[in-house]
Every structure is written in structure tokens, then in C-alpha cells.
Amino acid sequence: MLFCKPKSDICIIKQAIQVNLKNSEFFSALQNVDFRYFLSVRFLATFAAQMTSTLLAWQVYKITRDPLALGLIGLFEVLPFISMTLFAGHYVDKYSRKLIIVISATVLLACSVALALFTSSGMLTELKYGIWLAYSVNMVTGIARAFLFPAMTALRANIIRGPHMQNSIAWNVNIWYLAAISGPALAGLLYDWVGVVTAYWISVAIFSVAIFSVFMIREKGLSKGQHSEDIWKSLKEGINFVFERKIILSAITLDLFAVLFGGVVALLPVFAQEVLHTNATGLGILRAAPFVGSLLSGIVLAARPIRKNVGVILLTCVALFGVANLLFSLSEYLWLSAVLIGLAGVFDNVSVFIRHTIMQLYVPDNMRGRVSAVEGIFISSSNELGSFESGFAAKILGLIPSVVFGTSMTFLSVLLANRLSPELKQLDWSNESQQIE
Prior knowledge:
Layout (H helix, E strand, L loop, with lengths): L8 H15 L9 H32 L2 H26 L4 H24 L2 H4 L4 H29 L5 H29 L2 H19 L16 H14 L1 H17 L5 H8 L4 H24 L6 H21 L3 H29 L5 H30 L1 H22 L1 H4 L6 H4 L2
Helix pairs in contact: 2-3, 2-4, 2-6, 2-7, 2-8, 3-6, 3-9, 3-15, 4-6, 4-8, 6-15, 7-8, 7-12, 7-14, 9-15, 10-13, 10-14, 10-15, 10-16, 11-12, 12-14, 13-14, 13-16, 15-16
């Protein structure tokens, strides 16, 4: 604006654009500089983690040719996550959330280094039990994620409050999905072009930049609420809080059962190779497709947050998530499969957005770490245990029948939530002045 003539048309247009961007709800949360730094950490750490998980899944299936081996990847990650996350929530409510993020991300970086070294030395393939090295690394990954998840959730809530809260949730989810799209896609390309070892080292470099970015965030002070010094009493407080708030419990339970049984992500290497007859690049496309759908729906939600008929929309989208996954399992064309699983991502993201808003609205700051930890158990149970369930069901029932079974369970969870949780079904935030604050 310094070099604009006071009355020039270009200057007037620029001023109008600046005013519109400043007043637009779509960009409102991005005016906060700390939130922008937070989003950079969110993107880089997720990007690197998604790269690593995609590379590892493809490696494991190439070595074993066993869908159950893919399920074990999730199982060995989720067990330590569930074991440690409640303790992590206690420390997130007690100590610096930035410090916990730095330590957790550093451990994830070390896991990528270990996988690169194990692969380059041939230990994963040449040793009789080399595959168990990969599972061991995944256990350490689970511990790091147990601390990273509640710390990131609580730190974001510290940074953005007030009328821009829902917009910050949409951007937070969008950035995660953007990283989840590009991470697997790049991993697949790098696997085919430069090899898995180089791809692992690239993920290490990206983790390093993420860790550096954490230090740019100015950490706000924690709310000084009631927080027991006794760790067991503290953990009980967090668990009781969730189970006493029916809205919170219903939302995360619905997500648990829908994704636990209805998800197909863990079986994508099998679909890619055995059904669609594609390579690692094709797998990268399939892994990215649900996140593309989620990102597109997230862009809409950033501009037009859901405030009316919230409960009905949530239940409908969870049911449609199951339908999309079922149709995906019946497709024999890569492009059609990508579109269908992308639609599953659209419906899943709506439920994620609603659940995050519920967590922000109904949880006080001094409880965020512990409540986020309980939420993390439900989410990881649905994702990683869901991966094990998918692999186990495919082993026992067969690939397509296992997806049909999972979809049936998703529909059942929606019907039960509709019947047993009237509070969730009737959820509505149309009175913005009272609810979104």
C-alpha cells in the first residue's frame, strides 16, 4: 500500500481485498500469528508421520503378503498409546505443552531414523524375525503419539478462543488432511523413484523443521483450575468428566464403533495389489483420496460452520461413511475406488468437525489434557484397533466379506446412537451467542 496512489483504482481494489479478507469468517482464525505457527507444526509433523506410516505399510506387505501383518502394525502402535495416553493427559495439564510436543516429535523423528537404518542394513528383510523390528519401532511411535495428541489439542485450544473457535477447528482439521493427502502421495512416489531408505530420510528432515517451528509459538498460561497432584486421582477426574457428560461420551463412542468396524484404510495395500492391480504410486493415491475428500469438506466448513441440526447431520454422515466404504470394496477400477473412498473422507470429516467443536465447547482448559487423552483412546481404538480388526476379519472372512461385516456394524452403531442418545440427536448450535463462545 506504500506505493499506491491515494485515489488509484488498484489501490482501492487492494484495500477492498484486505477488508474482505479481514472480515471473512473463512480466514478469521488465521489472523492469529501463533495459530499460523501452530498450523505449520501440525502440517509438517503430520506430513512426516503419514509418509513414514505409508512406507512402512507397503514394506510390511511386500515382505509378508499377509493382511494380518498390516493389522499388527496398528495393534503394536495402539496398545502403548492406550496404555500411556491417560498419564500423558495428566502431564499435559500440569507442564508446558510446547515442551511435551517437542519431546514427542523428537521421538517420532528417531523412529523414522531407526526404520531408515534397519532398512538400509537389510535387517528388516534378511533377519528371520526382522519384521518384529518394525513392530518394535511402532510401539515407540505409539508412546510418542500418546503425549503428542493431547498436547497439540490443548495447545490449539489455548491459542484460539471466542468467536473464531469453529473456524480454527476447521483450519486445524484442514491442515491435518492436507498433510495426510500429500504425505502418502509423496511417500508412494518416492518409494518407486528413489527408494524407501531415501524416503525415510526425507521424513526425518521434515520432522526436524516441525520441531524447530514449535519454538515460534508463544504458549499461553494454563487455567488454574482444580488439578490433583495425585496422578491416580487426576486420571480419575478426567475419566469421570467424560462419562458424566453424555454429549461428549456419545460423540466419541459413535466415532469409535463406526471407524473401528467400518474403516478400510488398513486394507488399502491389499486392495491396491490384489483387486486394483496397481503399484506403490497407486497405493499413495488411495491413501490420499479420503483426505482429499475431507479437505474439500473442511474448506466448506471453514466458511460455513455447522450450527443447525448438528446431531441429525452427524448421524447421517456416519451412516453415509459406511455406505461409501462398502461401495469402495466392490469397485475394480482405481479411479472409481479413489472417488468412493474420497466420499468416505467427506462424511468422516463432518463428524470430526462436530466432535472437535463439542470438545472445545464443553471442556474447561484445566481439563483439556486429560479429556483429550480419553478422547485419544477412543480415536486410536477406532483407528489402530480398527486396523487390526480389518486385517483379522479379512484373514478369517475374506477381503470383501470383511468390509460388508464392518459396514453392517457401522449402521448398527448409528441406529443405537439414534435410539440411546437423544441429547446427541437433538444437538443444535443455531443460537450462536449462547453456544459458540
